[in-house]
Design brief:
The structure is a homodimer.
Chain A lengths: L7 H18 L3 E2 H8 L3 H13 L3 E9 L2 E9 L5 E7 L3 E8 L4 E8 L7 H19 L6 E8 L2 E2 L6 E4 L4 E5 H6 L6 E5 H12 L8 E6 L3 E7 L2 E2 L31 H4 L1 H11 L10 H10 L3 H25 L3 E5 L1 H21 L2 H5 L2 E4 L6 H16 L3 H10 L13
Parallel strand pairs in A: 4-7, 7-11, 12-15, 15-16
Antiparallel strand pairs in A: 1-3, 2-3, 4-5, 5-6, 8-9, 9-10, 12-13, 13-14
The structure holds a DNA duplex (30 and 30 nucleotides).
DNA sequence: CACCACAATTAATGCTATGAACTAAGCTTT
DNA sequence: AAAGCTTAGTTCATAGCATTAATTGTGGTG
C-alpha cells in the first residue's frame, strides 16, 4: 500500500538476492540451473554471479560432466565470506555462538545469569564480550562478522532501537538494539526467542519445505512462532503468536498471567504438574526441577497420572486446533522441552485430539510433527537474522560501502576483463 | 523465497502501480505531490502519468493555485475508465452490483435463492445474467467491465479454478471460477464473503488507515477476516480466520460443527438464543426469525436475559482476546448483524471483557471498533477484488493487449508529441 | 583432426529512471 | 504593459539494467 518507487538498482539488488538465496538454499548449482530456477537469462546469471564471485561472496565448487559437452561449474556461497553470531538470552544463561555461512557452528561461549532479573547493561556486556570471545576462539577476523542476532524471551519492537519487553527478565522497554550498537559496529538484530527457534526449525528442522507453518512451543510457558509465506508473522507490534494466553477453558484455572482458563495453565509444564498435584490429593510429582518432575509423571503408571496426561493431550489438541483454524498452516511443528516430552509419547493421540477440535478441512491440510532441533537452536535461529538480511539484499550491504573504498581487487580475485 | 527475476518492465509496472494506488487512495494529487509521496523523480511521474492519461486511466481534475507560480494540475483516476462488478452469493439471495472506479454503485440486481442447497450451475447462470443486467441498467459497455468479483460464504482455494467448499450451500469442491470463466471473457475473482467484507471495511469503513486489523464477524455463524500489511491473510489453503470454531470452553456446549466448546456455540446468534432458552426453562425468546429474537432479547429487562447477555459479553471478550493475542492487530473491527447488535449496546463492556482475557500489551496496542458498513458491503468488497488487481499491476493488464491491436488513439486522447 | 554438444561469456539492443536544461503559466513589480 | 519572479511540468541526454544473438570455451566422438 505504501510501496515506494523501484529503480534499476533495486532491480539488480533483487536479482542478486534471488540468485544468492537459491544458491544458498539449494546447495551447489550450475549457472544453467540457476537460470532455469529464476527465469533469468544465462547472460544475466553469468554477469551477476561473476560480480558475486569477484566480491568473494560466491565461489566455484567443482564441476559436473554434461553428456558430451563442456562440464557445468557448480556454484556455492563461500562459507568463509563472512560469519554470523547468534546469541540466546535465556532466563538462566546467555549463549553466544559463531557460525560460518553454511551455518556450521565454529565457536561457543556461555555466561550464567545469576540474578532473577538481570541488569540489561550486564547482559549487553556479556553479549559484547561473547562476540569477541567467539571470534578469537575460532580465529576469525572480527570485521568478517556480518551481523549479530540476539534472541530474547519477550516481545521485541520492530524499531531501530529494538525495544524489548520481557516479563520473565523483568525488562520493561529496554532498547537492547541501541545499547548493543553503542558497543559494536557490527549490525545488530534482536528478535523473540520463539520466533528465532521457529526460523531455525523452518530452515533446518521439521519445517523444511513448508511455506506456511506454526511452530508450537511448550515449556514452562507456552508460545508459538507463525511463519507465513516463508517469513515470520509479526503483527502490528511484533507480539503476534502469544498462544499460551488464549482462553481454552472459559472461567477455568487461574494462569500466572492473572487471567482464567489460559492454555498455558493447562498444558504448560507448571500447569500440568499443578493439575497432577491437585488430582493426587496435594502430593506433587517426584523430581527436583520441573523437567525431571514432568519426566517422572510421564513414566508414572498410576491412574491419576494417566488421567492428568489424558486431559493434557486433550487440551493440547484443542490448542493446536485453534492454531490450525486461525492460521491454516500446512504444518504444525510441536516443540519446547515439555512439548517434545509429550509429543514423543503421545503424538498420535495429540493428532487425534486436534482432529476432534479442528475443522475437518484445515485439519486435513495440516500435518503435525515434532521439532527436530534441540533447544540450543535458539542461538542458531538468532544467527539466521543477519543471514536473512544478507540473502534479502543479495549481499550488497557490505560490499557496497567497501567497493568504493578498496579499489584494489581482493586477493584471489578473478580477472573479469582481459 | 521462491521469488523470481525482476526486469525493467517489472520496474515500470511497479512504479505505475505505486502511482496509480496513491492517486486512487489519496484523492486528486498533483504531479509534484506524487513525486514526493513516491520518491519518484518528477520526470518519471510526468512520463508515467502521461502514459496513463493517454490510456484514459487517469485524468486531470482541475487545478490549484500555487503562491505566485503556475497552478498545479490535479490528477485522479478516471471514474469511467472501467467498471467493477461485485456479487454476493448468500444463503438466501444473490446480489450483483456495478461500481465505477470511485466505488460508486451504479446498478444492482438481486436473485432469490429458493433451494437450501442451490445448484452451482443455477448460481452461475444468475451471476452471468446479473452481469449483463447491471451493465444494461446503467448503460455501460460490457467490454468496459474490468472484472467480476464474487463472494461466497465458504472457503475458496487460491487456484485458477477457484474451487469453493461451502457447507452452508452444500457445495463440496465446486470450481466456481472455472464455471464462470466458461460463460464470460471478463476476468473473474472469487473469494470468501467474510474476507471481502473485511476488505470493504478496511478501505471504506472502520478499518481505514490500519495496516494490521482483524474484522470479527458475528451472525448466525462466527468468522473473521485477518488483514496483515494491508492484504488479506489467507494461510496455506485460504481458510485462515476460522474464528468461530476455536475452542473457548473446553468440553463445553456442543457446536453445530460437532465439536464441544466452540466460540460460535456461545456467541453466535443461535448459540445465544439457545443459551437463553436453556436458562429460561426451555422457553425461547420471542420473535420469528433469529434476528428479531435477538433484538427482543436485547430489549428484554429480565434477570435471565441480563445473565445470558453478560455471559455473552464475557465469551465474546475472550474470543476477541484470542484474536488480539495471536494476531497482534492494531484494530479489531466487530461486525456481522449479531456483532453489531451486541456491540451497539455493550461495546464498552466488550472492551473490558477483552482486556480481562488478553495480554496487557497487545490489548493496549489494539483498538476495538464497530463495523461502519452494512451487510450489503459484501458485494462492494467483492468488487474490490478486481480493483486490487488493477492497482497492483498499475492498470497494464487491459491496455497491454489493447495497445498492440488498436494503434489508433482513443477519442479525446491528448497529443503527447507535437 | 574435424566435428559435435553443451557451457559460459561477450556484444549489441531496447527499456527504464534520472538529473539538468528548458518551457509553461500565473503573479508581482516597475 | 513589460519585465521579472516563482512554481509546475516537459524534454533530452545519460547511465544502468536484462535480454537476445553471436562468440568463445571445453569436453567427447567419429
Amino acid at each position: 500500500m505504501d510501496a515506494r518507487r523501484t529503480t534499476v538498482r533495486d532491480m539488480r539488488r533483487a536479482n542478486r538476492a534471488v540468485l544468492l538465496t537459491r544458491i544458498w538454499l539449494d546447495g551447489p548449482l550450475s549457472r544453467h540451473e540457476l537460470g532455469q530456477a529464476t527465469a533469468l537469462s544465462l547472460a544475466s546469471v553469468s554477469n551477476l554471479v561473476g560480480e558475486m564471485i569477484d566480491e568473494g561472496l560466491v565461489e566455484e565448487a567443482g564441476s559436473v560432466e554434461s553428456d558430451g559437452g563442456r562440464p557445468r561449474v557448480l556454484l556455492r556461497v563461500a562459507p568463509g565470506y563472512g560469519y554470523l553470531v547468534g546469541a540466546d538470552v535465556g532466563e538462566t544463561r546467555i549463549q553466544v555462538e559463531l557460525f560460518d555461512l553454511t551455518m556450521t557452528a565454529l565457536a561457543k561461549a556461555e555466561y550464567p545469569i545469576a540474578a532473577a532479573e538481570p541488569d540489561p547493561g550486564a547482559v549487553v556486556a556479556h553479549l559484547l564480550h561473547g562476540l569477541t570471545a567467539v571470534t578469537e576462539q575460532a580465529g576469525v577476523d572480527p570485521d568478517a562478522v556480518l551481523g549479530l542476532g540476539v534472541a530474547v524471551s519477550g516481545t521485541v519492537e520492530r524499531t531501530a532501537d529494538a525495544v524489548v519487553h520481557a516479563q520473565t527478565l523483568g525488562w520493561e522497554g529496554v532498547p537492547l538494539g541501541a545499547m548493543l550498537r553503542a558497543g559494536t559496529d557490527i549490525p545488530v538484530h534482536v528478535d523473540n526467542g520463539a520466533k528465532t527457534l521457529g526460523q531455525a526449525e523452518m530452515w533446518f528442522g521439521a519445517g523444511r519445505g513448508a511455506r506456511h507453518a506454526v511452530v508450537a512451543l511448550v515449556g514452562s510457558g507456552v508460545g508459538a512462532a507463525v511463519i507465513t509465506d516463508g517469513v515470520s508473522y509479526r503483527g502490528a507490534h511484533s507480539s503476534a503468536g502469544e498462544w499460551g494466553h488464549t482462553t481454552i477453558a472459559y472461567g477455568g484455572r487461574q494462569c500466572r498471567c492473572g487471567n482464567l482458563g489460559c492454555l498455558e495453565a493447562y498444558v504448560g509444564a507448571e500447569g500440568i504438574l499443578d493439575r497432577y498435584r491437585l488430582a493426587n490429593r496435594g502430593r506433587p510429582a517426584a523430581g527436583g526441577d520441573e523437567e525431571s518432575a514432568l519426566g517422572e509423571l510421564l513414566r508414572s503408571s498410576t491412574g491419576t497420572a494417566a488421567t492428568v496426561l489424558d486431559d493434557t493431550v486433550g487440551y493440547l489438541g484443542a490448542g493446536v486446533a485453534t492454531l490450525i483454524n486461525l492460521f491454516n498452516p500446512e504444518r504444525v511443528v510441536l516443540g519446547g522441552w515439555a512439548g517434545l516430552a509429550l509429543g514423543e509419547r503421545f503424538l498420535p493421540r495429540i493428532r487425534e485430539a486436534t482432529a476432534r477440535h479442528a475443522l475437518r478441512q484445515p485439519y486435513a491440510q495440516a500435518s503435525i510433527e515434532l521439532c527436530q532441533l534441540g533447544p540450543d537452536a535458539v542461538a542458531m535461529g538468532a544467527a539466521t537474522l543477519p543471514m536473512v538480511r544478507l540473502l534479502r539484499d543479495g549481499g550488497v550491504s557490505r560490499s557496497a560501502g567497501a567497493a568504493r573504498i578498496e579499489a584494489t581487487p581482493r586477493p584471489g580475485r578473478r580477472p573479469r576483463t582481459r
